Protein backbone atom coordinates (compact mmCIF):
# COMPACT_ATOMS: atom_id res chain seq x y z
CA UNK A 1 0.00 0.00 0.00
CA UNK A 2 1.11 3.55 -0.69
CA UNK A 3 0.90 6.23 1.97
CA UNK A 4 -0.89 9.39 0.90
CA UNK A 5 1.42 12.21 -0.18
CA UNK A 6 -0.92 14.90 1.17
CA UNK A 7 -0.85 16.05 4.80
CA UNK A 8 -3.10 18.23 6.92
CA UNK A 9 -6.38 18.08 5.01
CA UNK A 10 -8.88 20.55 6.42
CA UNK A 11 -12.63 20.30 5.99
CA UNK A 12 -14.47 23.30 4.61
CA UNK A 13 -17.34 25.09 6.33
CA UNK A 14 -19.79 23.45 3.94
CA UNK A 15 -18.38 19.98 4.64
CA UNK A 16 -18.58 20.50 8.41
CA UNK A 17 -22.21 21.63 8.19
CA UNK A 18 -23.14 18.69 5.94
CA UNK A 19 -21.39 16.18 8.25
CA UNK A 20 -23.23 17.64 11.25
CA UNK A 21 -26.63 17.14 9.60
CA UNK A 22 -25.71 13.54 8.83
CA UNK A 23 -24.23 12.96 12.31
CA UNK A 24 -27.54 14.16 13.75
CA UNK A 25 -29.40 11.70 11.44
CA UNK A 26 -31.25 14.60 9.82
CA UNK A 27 -29.93 13.67 6.36
CA UNK A 28 -29.07 10.41 4.68
CA UNK A 29 -25.41 9.89 3.82
CA UNK A 30 -26.20 10.37 0.13
CA UNK A 31 -28.10 13.64 0.66
CA UNK A 32 -26.89 17.24 0.54
CA UNK A 33 -28.28 20.06 2.72
CA UNK A 34 -30.47 22.52 0.89
CA UNK A 35 -29.97 26.28 0.82
CA UNK A 36 -32.06 26.91 3.94
CA UNK A 37 -30.38 24.09 5.84
CA UNK A 38 -26.91 25.34 4.92
CA UNK A 39 -27.74 28.90 5.97
CA UNK A 40 -29.08 27.77 9.33
CA UNK A 41 -26.14 25.42 9.82
CA UNK A 42 -23.59 28.15 9.11
CA UNK A 43 -25.35 30.51 11.54
CA UNK A 44 -25.25 27.88 14.28
CA UNK A 45 -21.60 27.10 13.52
CA UNK A 46 -20.81 30.81 13.82
CA UNK A 47 -22.40 30.86 17.29
CA UNK A 48 -20.31 27.85 18.32
CA UNK A 49 -17.04 29.43 17.16
CA UNK A 50 -17.89 32.80 18.72
CA UNK A 51 -18.60 30.98 21.99
CA UNK A 52 -15.03 29.63 22.02
CA UNK A 53 -13.82 33.17 22.73
CA UNK A 54 -15.31 32.90 26.23
CA UNK A 55 -13.15 29.89 27.13
CA UNK A 56 -9.97 31.89 27.48
CA UNK A 57 -6.82 32.39 25.47
CA UNK A 58 -5.82 29.94 22.75
CA UNK A 59 -2.48 30.22 21.01
CA UNK A 60 -4.14 30.28 17.57
CA UNK A 61 -5.89 33.54 18.47
CA UNK A 62 -2.88 35.41 19.92
CA UNK A 63 -1.33 38.21 17.91
CA UNK A 64 0.96 41.17 18.48
CA UNK A 65 -0.30 44.65 17.69
CA UNK A 66 2.04 47.62 17.48
CA UNK A 67 0.85 51.18 18.13
CA UNK A 68 2.95 54.28 17.51
CA UNK A 69 2.69 56.76 20.36
CA UNK A 70 2.25 60.49 19.89
CA UNK A 71 3.73 63.18 22.13
CA UNK A 72 1.03 64.34 24.55
CA UNK A 73 -1.55 61.66 23.62
CA UNK A 74 -2.52 59.07 26.26
CA UNK A 75 -5.42 57.18 24.57
CA UNK A 76 -5.14 54.96 21.47
CA UNK A 77 -7.73 52.95 19.53
CA UNK A 78 -6.97 49.26 19.02
CA UNK A 79 -8.08 47.12 16.03
CA UNK A 80 -11.77 46.19 15.97
CA UNK A 81 -11.20 42.41 15.81
CA UNK A 82 -9.80 42.22 19.36
CA UNK A 83 -11.50 40.17 22.09
CA UNK A 84 -9.08 41.04 24.88
CA UNK A 85 -5.63 42.46 25.63
CA UNK A 86 -3.10 40.49 27.66
CA UNK A 87 -0.51 41.50 30.23
CA UNK A 88 2.14 42.79 29.76
CA UNK A 89 2.73 45.18 26.87
CA UNK A 90 6.20 46.41 25.87
CA UNK A 91 7.31 49.95 25.14
CA UNK A 92 10.09 50.63 22.64
CA UNK A 93 11.55 54.12 22.89
CA UNK A 94 11.94 56.35 19.86
CA UNK A 95 15.20 55.88 17.97
CA UNK A 96 15.62 52.20 18.83
CA UNK A 97 16.90 49.88 16.15
CA UNK A 98 14.97 46.87 14.85
CA UNK A 99 15.24 44.65 16.81
CA UNK A 100 15.44 47.09 19.74
CA UNK A 101 18.33 46.90 22.17
CA UNK A 102 15.95 47.32 25.11
CA UNK A 103 12.23 47.30 25.89
CA UNK A 104 10.26 48.58 28.89
CA UNK A 105 7.57 46.44 30.53
CA UNK A 106 4.16 48.13 30.59
CA UNK A 107 1.76 46.62 33.13
CA UNK A 108 -1.94 46.06 32.50
CA UNK A 109 -4.09 47.57 35.28
CA UNK A 110 -7.82 47.53 36.02
CA UNK A 111 -10.24 50.45 35.98
CA UNK A 112 -10.00 50.92 39.75
CA UNK A 113 -6.23 51.35 39.59
CA UNK A 114 -6.66 53.67 36.63
CA UNK A 115 -9.19 55.73 38.58
CA UNK A 116 -6.78 56.05 41.52
CA UNK A 117 -3.95 57.59 39.48
CA UNK A 118 -3.41 61.07 40.92
CA UNK A 119 -1.05 62.74 38.44
CA UNK A 120 -2.80 62.76 35.05
CA UNK A 121 -0.38 65.30 33.62
CA UNK A 122 2.72 63.14 34.14
CA UNK A 123 4.67 62.47 30.93
CA UNK A 124 7.40 60.00 30.07
CA UNK A 125 7.82 56.37 29.01
CA UNK A 126 4.54 54.51 29.72
CA UNK A 127 4.69 51.98 32.57
CA UNK A 128 0.98 51.11 32.91
CA UNK A 129 -2.01 50.78 30.62
CA UNK A 130 -5.74 50.33 31.06
CA UNK A 131 -8.09 48.91 28.40
CA UNK A 132 -11.32 50.88 28.18
CA UNK A 133 -13.89 48.38 26.84
CA UNK A 134 -16.92 50.66 26.85
CA UNK A 135 -16.03 51.85 23.35
CA UNK A 136 -15.81 50.16 19.94
CA UNK A 137 -13.01 49.62 19.20
CA UNK A 138 -11.29 49.15 22.56
CA UNK A 139 -9.18 52.06 23.75
CA UNK A 140 -5.76 51.68 25.38
CA UNK A 141 -5.09 54.42 27.95
CA UNK A 142 -1.45 54.88 28.92
CA UNK A 143 0.27 56.29 31.97
CA UNK A 144 2.40 58.32 32.04
CA UNK A 145 1.40 60.10 28.83
CA UNK A 146 4.03 59.45 26.13
CA UNK A 147 6.32 62.36 25.32
CA UNK A 148 7.75 60.96 22.07
CA UNK A 149 6.93 58.85 19.01
CA UNK A 150 7.77 55.45 20.51
CA UNK A 151 6.15 52.06 19.88
CA UNK A 152 3.86 50.00 22.11
CA UNK A 153 3.58 46.29 21.37
CA UNK A 154 0.43 44.67 22.76
CA UNK A 155 -0.39 40.97 23.03
CA UNK A 156 -4.03 40.56 22.00
CA UNK A 157 -6.62 37.83 21.66
CA UNK A 158 -8.29 38.30 18.29
CA UNK A 159 -11.66 37.12 17.06
CA UNK A 160 -11.91 34.04 14.86
CA UNK A 161 -12.75 34.42 11.17
CA UNK A 162 -16.43 34.20 10.18
CA UNK A 163 -17.89 31.07 8.56
CA UNK A 164 -20.02 32.74 5.91
CA UNK A 165 -18.51 30.89 2.93
CA UNK A 166 -19.04 27.18 2.34
CA UNK A 167 -15.76 26.77 0.45
CA UNK A 168 -13.64 28.41 3.18
CA UNK A 169 -12.02 26.53 6.06
CA UNK A 170 -12.58 27.41 9.71
CA UNK A 171 -10.03 29.52 11.55
CA UNK A 172 -9.03 26.62 13.81
CA UNK A 173 -6.54 23.74 13.60
CA UNK A 174 -7.81 20.45 12.24
CA UNK A 175 -8.12 18.79 15.66
CA UNK A 176 -11.09 21.08 16.40
CA UNK A 177 -13.17 19.63 13.55
CA UNK A 178 -14.63 16.69 15.48
CA UNK A 179 -15.82 19.02 18.26
CA UNK A 180 -17.40 21.40 15.74
CA UNK A 181 -19.22 18.57 13.97
CA UNK A 182 -20.49 17.03 17.23
CA UNK A 183 -21.56 20.32 18.81
CA UNK A 184 -23.27 21.50 15.63
CA UNK A 185 -24.98 18.12 15.26
CA UNK A 186 -26.26 18.41 18.83
CA UNK A 187 -27.69 21.88 18.20
CA UNK A 188 -29.26 20.80 14.90
CA UNK A 189 -30.78 17.75 16.59
CA UNK A 190 -32.20 19.93 19.36
CA UNK A 191 -33.59 22.39 16.82
CA UNK A 192 -35.31 19.52 15.02
CA UNK A 193 -36.74 18.26 18.36
CA UNK A 194 -35.10 14.87 17.99
CA UNK A 195 -35.29 12.52 21.00
CA UNK A 196 -33.51 13.83 24.09
CA UNK A 197 -31.31 10.73 24.23
CA UNK A 198 -29.85 11.59 20.82
CA UNK A 199 -29.22 15.21 21.79
CA UNK A 200 -27.63 14.32 25.13
CA UNK A 201 -25.36 11.73 23.52
CA UNK A 202 -24.14 14.21 20.91
CA UNK A 203 -23.59 16.91 23.54
CA UNK A 204 -21.64 14.49 25.72
CA UNK A 205 -19.34 13.59 22.83
CA UNK A 206 -18.91 17.26 21.96
CA UNK A 207 -17.96 18.12 25.54
CA UNK A 208 -15.22 15.51 25.67
CA UNK A 209 -13.86 16.66 22.31
CA UNK A 210 -13.93 20.27 23.53
CA UNK A 211 -11.81 19.43 26.57
CA UNK A 212 -9.19 17.69 24.47
CA UNK A 213 -9.08 20.42 21.83
CA UNK A 214 -8.78 23.17 24.45
CA UNK A 215 -5.90 21.35 26.14
CA UNK A 216 -4.13 21.03 22.80
CA UNK A 217 -4.74 24.72 22.00
CA UNK A 218 -2.91 26.00 25.06
CA UNK A 219 0.74 26.93 24.72
CA UNK A 220 2.91 23.96 25.56
CA UNK A 221 5.42 24.79 28.26
CA UNK A 222 7.64 22.46 30.27
CA UNK A 223 6.34 21.44 33.67
CA UNK A 224 8.54 21.62 36.76
CA UNK A 225 7.91 20.01 40.12
CA UNK A 226 9.20 21.45 43.37
CA UNK A 227 9.53 19.16 46.36
CA UNK A 228 9.75 20.59 49.87
CA UNK A 229 10.07 18.76 53.18
CA UNK A 230 10.80 19.75 56.76
CA UNK A 231 14.36 19.40 58.02
CA UNK A 232 14.93 18.33 61.61
CA UNK A 233 17.73 20.14 63.35
CA UNK A 234 19.39 19.24 66.66
Tell me the span between the first and last alpha carbons. Answer: 72 Å
Q: Quick check: average pLDDT?
A: 90
Number of continuous helical runs: 5
Strand order of the largest sheet: 1-7-3-4-5-6-2
Low-pLDDT runs: none
Structural class: alpha+beta
Describe the structure concisely:
With 234 residues, this protein is α+β, with helices and mostly antiparallel strands. It has helices at residues 13-23, 35-51, 111-116, 177-191, 196-217, and strands spanning 62-68, 75-77, 82-92, 104-108, 128-132, 139-143, 151-158.
Description:
The structure is a single chain. By secondary structure, the chain is α+β, with helices and mostly antiparallel strands. The protein has two domains: 13-56 and 161-217; 59-158, no CATH class. Helix content is 30%, strand content 19%. The longest helix has 22 residues, at 196-217. The radius of gyration is 24 Å and the shape is elongated. The mean pLDDT is 90.
Task: Fill in the keyword field for this structure.
234 residues; 5 helices; alpha+beta; 7 strands; 2 domains
Helix and strand arrangement:
Blueprint: H1 13-23, H2 35-51, E1 62-68, E2 75-77, E3 82-92, E4 104-108, H3 111-116, E5 128-132, E6 139-143, E7 151-158, H4 177-191, H5 196-217
Parallel strand pairs: 4-5
Antiparallel strand pairs: 1-7, 2-6, 3-4, 3-7, 5-6
